[in-house]
Amino acid sequence: MYQAIPYNASRAWPAATAMAAAAPASGGGGEDEVRKAVAECPVVVVGRSGCCLSHVVKRLLQGLGVNPAVHEVAGEADLAGVVVVAAGDGGGVTLPAVFVGGRLLGGLDRLMAVHISGELVPILKEAGALWL
């Protein structure tokens, strides 16, 4: 019999200052990639490689007609860069993180809440991710 592997989606990322101190002094490439993607793309999804929650986020957005840019975090150094980018928008972020229109929307729970309330499509239209 197979046993499910527990996944804790509500695990908050470490504080940005602690992770920034642990990042390489030359500036994390992950941070630059994420900053550039958030600035250029209307929708960016940041998640761990192979994460089922990231897959759900991508499928929900694709079902609405949005083609999000995806940044997969492989290690703690990449995670530190993402935390620095997201810390400016409120700090405590969980994976997967969804950026819409250059701002952090939140994780899967926030995305689902906004979708169910009917606010997601107008937000995506305002960001330029939907044209219909």
Automatic annotation (TrEMBL):
Transmembrane segments: none annotated. InterPro entries: GlrX-like_pln_2, Glutaredoxin, Thioredoxin-like_sf. CDD domains: GRX_GRXh_1_2_like. It comes from Leersia perrieri. It is found in: Cytoplasm. It comes from the Eukaryota. Signal peptide: none annotated. Keywords: Cytoplasm, Redox-active center. The keyword Cytoplasm applies. PROSITE patterns: GLUTAREDOXIN_2. PANTHER family: GLUTAREDOXIN. One of its GO terms (cellular component) is cytoplasm. This is Glutaredoxin domain-containing protein.
